[in-house]
Amino acid sequence: MMMMRFLKAVIAASAGLFAAGAANAQTALPNGFTESPQCVVKASQWEQPAGTSTLSLVSRGRGDSSFHYQPHTILSWYYGGAAAIHEMDDMTASYFLNCISKGSSEQCGLKKDNKVAKAINKIRFDDSLSKSDRKAIDKYFGQKPPASAIRYAATELGLCFGDDPGQPTIEEIDFIQVTPPEEDCRQYPEMVTQRFINVSYPDGLHRYYLPWKASFQAQLDAGPVCDRPVWVPRQAVDNLAGRRAYKSAFENRPVAERIEGLNGCEIAYGVVTMGLTQQGGVARVPDEAIGWALRYEQAVIDNELCPVMSQSLSDWVQAQPLTKFEPAPDPFEGFRNRGPSSYSMEGWKAYIARVMGHYETASSPQITLEGDVCDDYATFLVEQYYANPGVSDPQSKFLFDTAFKLDFSQRSAMCVAVPKWSFASYANKRAIQAARREEANRKMAQREAFMASLKQAADEANKWKPTYRPPASEPRCYRTGEKVETCFYN
After folding, report:
1. Domain count within the chain
2. 157/173 Cα distance (integer angstroms)
């Protein structure tokens, strides 16, 4: 019924509504901006910081969820001209730079220009602009934003650009008027503007929600608006209806679906837990149920059989309604997530041994390690933490995460319970690394031997080379006959 009332709340704008809007029209600001029910920006958001010459939309810090730098800057530029760009603060400049820089993939409906981006980057770092920088900004921002940039900003801020022909219609950005149901009056902004995971919105429409929420919340703070229609994205309304339908179906699912896949002990533990928290219409829990629940938790943690339940307790459990039954959290997961009772070496060893004992089976036995092998195995686990950030196996994730959390001096605690498959993986990894080192060493030795052989060959060649003697400066003469003498220089 409530769903029908909500869907019927989606209405078209009536002539009376437009007449009322005209009667309550706001006076334009000096820069020409006028508030509109279809624009999330309010007149009170425009400021003229000290030392500036024009009104601008200014962020109130990183926590200001109503301010989105790119679309708000485009709106400031529309009403303030190039002066709004010259006078924007460093944070705004750093975000708006992405709209202009060719190195950024962000598309804001503006032509990329690295010369202008360089000038804006100087504003970002509060550097002085040169004459060329100012000229580049004045040339680029001297005209109104193009229609593509106005459309980009409108998909997030609504219709804030007056009668500009480049502004899309409210139908083009797929907004509709909704009168919030009376029971949802105060919560409606939160309900409609929740971030929807895995839902794609065209033209960045999903980024509209936070500024719209802040604007509508401000209206709520000023007085009730339950009797007035508001403009919201159609897809937000559709998703709200879908979430409500899912919630209703989940809350009213049959008992068979609620207990599907659970054994008797898990159902009994869930019933006792609901009784302790007074949920689901479960009667007062008998004293013996608390002791049984504690024994059950220890049995689950240690992977043992379910403890025996007395007949009286069994009768009490079976007498409880299951129409609102919800399974209790897994005791083992709770123990594993809580961590050790103390962060001493002994505390870590006891905790790790008990968690790993839960995973041990006949087909997956565990061993202990000591000495240098233990230290190297713990190092291996930390290496695996970085190498496998998205590991899904719970046991592997526990080993990797715990080794990473431990101080270096406490990592040997990981060796109290080492699955044989994990040690085999470690040994195989180290064997591969050793083989690669051996191969590298072999190649290095081979190269060194080759270089040594070249040197030896060179030494051998130089060993029998005749000693060089320079030519004599005077001829050497020998008598070759009674009266004949032969002379030579070489």
Report:
1. 3
2. 11
